[in-house]
Give the backbone structure.
Amino acid sequence: MTTTWKDDAGRDLVRSFGERMALFTRGEGAYLWDDKGRRYLDFLAGIAVNSLGHAHPVFVEAVAAQAATLAHVSNYFATEPQLALASRLKRLAGTGPSGRVYFGNSGAEANEAAFKLARLHGGADRPRILSLRDAFHGRTMGTLALTGKPWMQEPFLPMAGGVEFIDSTIEALEAAIDDRVAALFVEPVKGEAGVVELPEGFLRAARELTEQHGVLLIIDEIQTGAGRTGEWFAFQHDGITPDAITVAKGIGGGFPIGALITFGAASELFYPGTHGSTFGGNALGTAVAGAVLAEIERADLVANAAERGEQLRAAIEAIGSPLVSGCRGKGLLVGVGLRHPVAKAVVAAAQEHGLIINAPNDETIRLVPALTIGDVEIDEFVQLFAASLETVAHALVLEDEPAQAGAEVRA
Ligand SMILES: *Cc1c(COP(=O)(O)O)cnc(C)c1O
């Protein structure tokens, strides 16, 4: 009796993820191939991770060259790629000379460091930490405590103390921020919540109020960073300077790496012995991230993200599907709102049509393709996405009473 990869996955892998949707064996640019040799257009890019697409020569060369030179020495020592990446991240984030970088291996680790930064700043006088309802900051115990989704926290209570959740409104900021608050955590576009943007002026108000009250403003750029939204970091759309940002996902282009970048006085909070990581910032990871960011700069992919994002939104609106209510997000972080809770069905239909996309909730499709995409990929996307929407709209009409459901779907 032969077993399939699905049997193996079902037996051997942790059950905290749903059933794996495909077994991929190869990638190139914006395309993936499965074990049957079938090709897919990838508009998920490993959840905003593969900034340069799959198997980009710059990525491949950086991994190979650094692995053949020096991969890891521990944080008792410095390496050239680590210093170069710290300096590059400071420049791109605009910290000026007083900025500092802590390296970890994931988004959650970057936010864990930020949580500790908040505690160091707060001490006994500032026990409160504010975070936004519905924002996502990670799955470790610390970052879960910062994540404003009660259903995610519930099986793991009690959480780390002191975190309070507020609505993403300027009024809520005004009501909550006082001199007892250590830090405000902000996800500038809520990716996991369905690509939900903050209200106009929110970040500027947050900066003003946090500054008035001596509160750290910590911006989670893990999904929005590395050029994804059409600026290097999303906070740069608003012209503010935060106290710290966290980055991961797109920075490494597929290599696991995360970082906390601090600005000004916040850079002096950590002192020897207060935080660390064995793997964090090793030569291999930092060399790859350095090469990925250098290529994003060289090829001007931040501008491409802005431009292609506009193009993609316009193309989706132009499909004119009765299922689509509209597009959200910035640059190549795109949320497609649906009029019916059929996002999972659209994802499944898309896979059938040879397109990989994702549904952060029942009424949103999230598109986070490689920053390298151009006309060819967008044209193909539109064709496949339109067909997928059509498949689902058709099934909806068939499912319900024909006359009534048909009218609803067409409305
Ligand atoms: C993905 C994500 C995280 C967690 O990153 P991991 O690498 O999965 O630990 C945290 N915050 C935001 C905004 C994210 O999108």
About this structure: The mean pLDDT is 96. The two ends are 51 Å apart (CA to CA). The CA atoms of residues 124 and 252 lie 37 Å apart. Residues 106-108, 111, 136-138, 187, 191-192, 220, 222-223, 248-249 surround pyridoxal-5'-phosphate (CB under 6 Å).
